[in-house]
Specification:
The chain contains eleven helices and 13 strands. It is of the alpha/beta class. The structure holds adenosine-5'-diphosphate (ADP), iron/sulfur cluster (SF4) and magnesium ion (MG).
Length: about 325
Amino acid sequence: MSVLLQVKNLKTHFFNRNHVIPAVDGIDLNIEQGQTVALVGESGAGKSIASLSILKLIPNPPGKIVEGEILFNGTDLVSLSEKQMCKVRGNDISMIFQDPMTSLNPVLTIGEQIIEVLVYHKKMTKREAKEQAIELLKLVGFSRAEDLISEYPHRLSGGMRQRVMIAIAMSCNPKLLIADEPTTALDVTIQAQILDLMRDLKERTNTSILIITHDLGVVSEIADKVLVMYCGQVVEEAPVEELFSEPLHPYTVGLIDSIPTLDSDTDRLIPIEGHVPSPEQFPKGCRFAPRCPHAFERCFTETPDLITMNEKHSTRCFLYEGKGRKK
Ligand SMILES: Nc1ncnc2c1ncn2[C@@H]1O[C@H](COP(=O)(O)OP(=O)(O)O)[C@@H](O)[C@H]1O
Ligand code: SF4
Ligand SMILES: [Mg+2]
């Protein structure tokens, strides 16, 4: 498989009056053609900032990509002008967000919104765009697409709106779809339908997907490969089965242990103790040390490197030193 996206040592920092906030602090991320990669971690880990960086949508000021490369089909997006990036956003990489209502325009019908995108980016006539809009809505599972195009967003349920957003995102045949918590606002049944839809679209169109979520249940449903983020860094990367069968990093183990299972009541859920530190003051040494059940003296003073355990599995923890090779 060929590599579509190659993020190398990406650092996106925010600059406030007194602080540098290293929201994304040196991540590497590869996505192959047709692959679904999940970025997981608790709120504040830097997942959204990492994905917005790929699209160069970081508000500047206060934010800035300070280091690294984002190679998309070999072209470094970091060095592209805003005009060139607009083309990339319209043709190659699309994004959907958690709350489809904020991304849909309330005063335009569903049809008008899709047609607008197709006329602008695909240079279609209105008539061609309308036909294509109906096709796209069918693609995302609306059987009565002809009627739906004249509806306004507020008339649709959350799940339907998210389907519309996916239709809009797919309208340019993107090579990469970035989905930031696409199912978080939806109830469980609808969540499963949206994940099914994304899987189905990927199979049919071979689009690569970067899915961002705090939910390991979602990861197990859809991902081929997983990157676990903590405090702006990747702490573990593995194929999805291996991440669940052989989690290495104490943080990953904690996340997996805190998944509620069907036969357990919520009382038995074991959350990771403590909370995610603020990026304004990441702890010295291993950033997970204050919460880590295995932390030892060195963890509070030295920073662990990412260690490659096998070709596809790496982790950032001193416990594995000498068991793999440093990246
Ligand atoms: N506009 C901003 N100004 C300053 N800091 C920000 C801004 N946006 C995000 N951050 C910082 O980046 C961190 C990571 O945010 P984010 O990527 O949204 O986390 P996640 O998506 O993993 O929940 C936040 O904890 C916050 O401190
Ligand atoms: S380096 Fe130390 S503190 Fe960090 S995860 Fe490993 S054992 Fe825990
Ligand atoms: Mg987020």
